[in-house]
Design a protein that fits this description.
2 domains; elongated
Length: 163
């Protein structure tokens, strides 16, 4: 957006300072805010569910330490293997847009960005995760308005992940 604003300002400055020719046609004035950038891809925007700002609604989930810390061992290893398998499943279904760990400050251990504006749908999807089922973590839900380009993260990630 900032690049677009700067480019528009630069073009306007050049237009205002360019010498006028008597025989030059005068273009009709159009508001810069209503014109789409030259690089705008309407088909891509539609495929990602983007609004006119290139944004869309999601649900942001904060995973926090829950009441049932599982001791180290085979059961905990299996639970976390299931957690990662569940994330991969949700990502494959285009439900999980983005996930990652946090540093643990104030018990915050990870995030999910889910491809829905519906809190109840998000809760149903997160309820399938073994860390939630076992009480290792609890989830907090917040509506989130962000770039529709986030929908491409998993496809791009698959191209850069080595293992």
């Amino acid at each position: 957006m900032l690049k677009h604003v700067l480019a528009t300002c630069a073009a306007l400055a050049l237009t205002l300072h360019a010498p006028a020719r008597a025989d030059a046609p005068v273009a009709p004035a159009t508001p810069a805010a209503s014109a789409a950038p030259a690089r705008y891809d309407a088909a891509l925007a539609a495929s990602l569910g983007a609004d006119e700002r290139g944004m869309r609604q999601y649900v942001l989930v904060i995973l926090k330490t829950g009441p049932n810390k599982m001791a180290a061992g085979e059961a905990r290893t299996k639970m976390f293997a299931g957690h990662f398998a569940n994330m991969n499943k949700l990502a494959g279904e285009k439900k999980l847009v983005l996930a990652g760990p946090l540093d643990g400050t104030d018990g915050r251990r990870g995030i999910f960005v889910l491809n829905t504006p519906d809190l109840e749908a998000a809760k149903a999807w997160v309820a399938t995760d073994p860390v939630i089922i076992n009480g290792e973590m609890v989830a907090e839900y917040q509506k989130f308005y962000g770039s529709a380009a986030l929908m491409m993260v998993n496809d791009v990630h698959a191209k850069i992940e080595k293992k």
